[in-house]
């Protein structure tokens, strides 16, 4: 079931992110219609009014300062208003709601894979609960893709080597569509997925069906997989048990990791950086890119890990207390 949209040129709106975009879009649209009609009408009128007439000699009009000022200032005011309308829409849609459910989106030639907080990975179908805020953490395993849901008016590139994010709250029960909006090779046009937005009751049934991953739910959760990898790659040898920054009662050779997520990290350079997904990812793959203050004499080896492994380790780092 879908509801009809106020926006007659775009598919039905199915998330909270659509309204600000549609408002800005419709403003630009009607603004253009009014001015196109107005300017064309004025032009035709003047063509008719000042057409060549027998016995009338044309006279140059000369410079008219007031008019010059008027047609410079008026459009500027409109342009500023247009900027305001689109920028507020952008900011509104770029802010994630508190406690949004995080879903990992991985693009690869030529399919989308969705990983739920339970650790389940489902290709080509994204199941969401209506009226629940979500945050998509997107990455690409090969080339540039672009995750596009027209019904949500949301589109963002999935870039190899880093994370990008979109957030939304689905507002209508029904089916929406995912397209790849960045040319990525032979089957680009077939890089599709369905978004199923379910009612609370139906979503609970869907959730019961999750857990297809081998092993217990605890083992399957990304943060638990991340912990396994953390131990296996001997991260504990430098960052301490559970990233505590302590080894045998004294400070470990590597910086503390527990509790740093989302907080500023002081760097050697004197600057500081927020420990977000992209910072953690970079620090695992290229440890020397940003060195934490006081740790310039410690050489951390660079790790070669697959995207899902990086995602899992980052999920574990985020869960460290
Ligand atoms: Cu992926 Cu086009």
Task: Describe, in plain words, how this protein is organized in 3D.
With 321 residues, the chain is an alpha+beta fold. The protein folds into 2 domains: 7-29 and 67-211, Immunoglobulin-like (Sandwich); 222-319, Cytochrome Bc1 Complex, Chain D, domain 2 (Orthogonal Bundle), CATH 1.10.760. Helix content is 35%, strand content 21%. It is built from 8 helices and 14 strands. The two termini are 43 Å apart. The structure holds dinuclear copper ion (CUA). Dinuclear copper ion (CUA) binds at residues 107, 110, 145, 180, 182-184, 188, 191.
Rg from alpha-carbon coordinates: 27 Å
Number of domains: 2
User: Strand sequence of the main sheet, in spatial order?
Assistant: 3-2-1-5-8
**Beta strands, count:** 14
Number of helices: 8
Outline the biggest β-sheet.
Answer: 5 strands, mixed
The H-and-E topology, N to C, reads as HHEEEEEEEEEEHHHHEEEEHH
Binned, the helix content reads 25-40%
- Name given to the CATH architecture of the largest domain: Sandwich
Structural class, judged by helices and strands?
Answer: alpha+beta
Q: Which blocks of ≥5 consecutive residues have pLDDT under 50? A: 1-5
State the end-to-end CA separation: 43 Å
Ligand set? dinuclear copper ion
Silhouette: elongated
Assembly level: single chain
Which range does the strand content fall in? Answer: 15-25%
Within CATH, the superfamily of the largest domain carries the name Cupredoxins -  blue copper proteins
The name CATH uses for the topology of the largest domain is Immunoglobulin-like
What value does the average pLDDT take? 85
CATH class of the largest domain reads: Mainly Beta
